[in-house]
TrEMBL record:
Pfam family, one: Pkinase
Protein kinase domain boundaries: 322-615
Membrane-spanning residues: 252-275
Provenance organism: Microthlaspi erraticum
Residues holding ATP: 350
One Gene Ontology MF term: ATP binding
Keywords: ATP-binding, Membrane, Nucleotide-binding, Signal, Transmembrane, Transmembrane helix
Protein name: Protein kinase domain-containing protein
Keyword Cytoplasm among record annotations: no
InterPro entries: Kinase-like_dom_sf (IPR011009), Prot_kinase_dom (IPR000719), Protein_kinase_ATP_BS (IPR017441), Tyr_kinase_AS (IPR008266)
Amino acid sequence: MSQSQPPSASQRCFSLLIFLFTTLQSSSASCSSSSSSSSFHCPPFNSSPPFPFSTSPGCGHPNFQIQCSSPRATISIKNLSFSLLHYDSLSSSLLLSPILDSNRNRHNCSSLRFSHPIDLTGSPFQISDSSCSRLSLLRPCSPLLLPNCSRCPFDCKLLKNPGRILHGCESTHGSLSEQGCQGDLLGFLQDFFTRFGFQVEFDESQDPYFAKCRDCQTKNGACGFNSTHPDQDFLCFPQPGSETEQKKVNHVAVLSLIFALTCLLLAISVAVTIFRSRRASFFSSSVNEEDPAALFLRRHRSLALLPPVFTFEELESATNRFDQKRKIGDGGFGSVYLGQLTDGQLLAVKFLHHHHGATAAATEHCKAFSMKSFCNEILILSSIDHPNLVKLHGYCSDPRGLLLVHDYVTNGTLADHLHGRKSKMTWRVRIDIALQTALAMEYLHFAVAPPVVHRDITSSNIFVERDMRIKVGDFGLSRLLVLTETTATSASSSDFVCTGPQGTPGYLDPDYHRSFRLTEKSDVYSYGVVLMELMTGMKAVDQRREKRDMALADLFVSKLQVGLLDQVVDPLLAAAGEDDGGGVAALAELAFRCVAVDKDDRPDAKEIVLELKRIKSRTRVVDNDVAKC
C-alpha cells in the first residue's frame, strides 16, 4: 500500500468551498417546503417529501428520515431498513421493500433471507389489509419438503403460515385455495417482497408529532426537531427572509462564487496534468482489468460449462481483419464473417454491432443491450446440445467488440432457398426441414430445464447444410422460462414470464405483443409462419402485396378459410404433382392451428412433431405407390 499523500492545493480549495456552502446552508436553514428546489428528486418522491418525512437533518420527524440513494430511497422504521418503492399522497401510504440480511444463509437455510417477522407495532405505521390478504392465499404445494427446523425454525413456521412474515397478518386457518399453491413458497416470498414489497399506512393519532405539526403549519411554520437534543424535541421553524439574514446570505454567496472560480481554474490545471500522465498507461491497465462479461458469466454458470475464450486478435486474424468479402450474413444484432482458425477449421464469427455515430445516451443503451444479448446467447447455447441447433464454439469479450463463434453452416439459410433464385426444394425436403425444426423446438421446450423460448424462429435463422439438414441459430433474443408469478386467475394452465415483446415482424406472436406474456406457444406461432413459407415460397412480410395481405399469416389464413389454398401453394409443388397424399392440406391445417389467435388453441411442440411424422409417413407411402406404378 502506498503512503497517504498530503492534500493538494485543489483539495484544500474545495474543502474551503464546501465549508462556505455549509455556512451558507446553516445561515439560511429552513425546513419549509416552499424553499426547496423544484428540481429536487428523490424517488419515489417527485418533490420534497411531506411531513413526517424529510431528507434534511433536523427537518420532519426524527424517526422517519429519508436517505436518498440509487435506485431507491431508504427509510428506517423500528431499526428495520426498507426501500421506498412507491408513495401515494392521496392515501398517505407507502410501498416498502425490506432490505434483507445478506448473511442469512450462513446456516444453510432457504434462499429466503428473513429470520424473524417484520413487526411495525409501536410505530404510526400499520400494514394494509391488502398485503395481509395476499399472504393469506399462499400455501406450499405437496409434497412438502421441510427445511432443517432446528437451524431454520422461522422457515418452518412460514411454510405452515406465510402470513407470519408480517406481524399482524397471521392467518387463523390454513389457506384452502389451490391458486396460492407455490412449489417454492419461500423463494416466492423472497422474490415477492424484493420486487413488489408490502403496503403500509400511517395513523397520525398514534404519534404526538403529527398533532404538533398541524399546529405549527397553521402558524406558517415548518416542522422539525432539535437534532442536538438527546430527546430530539419537536421544533417549529419560522419562515426565513429577514433583512439581516438576507445580507449574510448574499455576502457568503459572493465569497463562495469567488472561491468557486478559483478552484475551477486550479482543478482544470490539475486535471490536465493527471490526464497526460495516465493516458499512456490507460490501455495497458485496461487489458488487466476483469472483463464485465466474464464476471457475469461466472456468476451464472461454472467455468467447466462455459465455452472456450478467444482473443480479439485470434478472431481478427481468422477473419482477415473482418474483411467485407468474408461477410456471410448481416442482421439486427451483428454481422457474421467466415473465419478460419490456425488448424484450418471453418467457423462463423458474429461481431455484435457498435452503432457508431449515435448519441452518448443511445450508445450506452446499445452497449448494455448488446452485452445482455451477448451473455444471454452464451449462457443458453452452452447449456444445450442438439443436432438441429447451432453449436457455440467460443466467444470473445473485448473493449473493441463482442464476438461469438458458431458452427459454419455452408449452404445458406432457409430464407435463401425459399425466396432466392435457387428455390427448387421438393415436397419431401420441405417436410424434412419442417420436422427437424420442430424437433429442435421440442428439445428447447421440453428437454431443457428451465425451458428455453427462442423468440425468433424465422426462415433467416434456420441454417441449411449441404445435405439439406438444418440447424436453428441466433439465440440473442432467447429467454429462459424462469417463472416469477403464475396466472392464478387465468383459465389457462400455461406458465409465462412478463417481458417486452421482441422478435421479427411477421413472425411475432400477436397475443404476446398485446399481453407481454411470453410462453412456449409464442415460438409455436413463429414456427407456424415458417410452415406457411415452406408451403407457399412467399416471404413472411412483403410490402408489395396488398395491405391486408402484407403479412403472410393473414393471407394464408384468409385463403384457407374460403377453400382457395391452391392460390397460395408454391407453384413448384403444384407443377410437380407432389400433393397426391394430401400432405399439403394436412400441413396447411397444422400451420393454421399454430397461428391460432388464442395461444391455448395452438399445439405444443410435441404435438407438432407427431403430426409431421404422420404426414411424412403418408408421403413415403405415396412415393412407394408411385414407384410401383
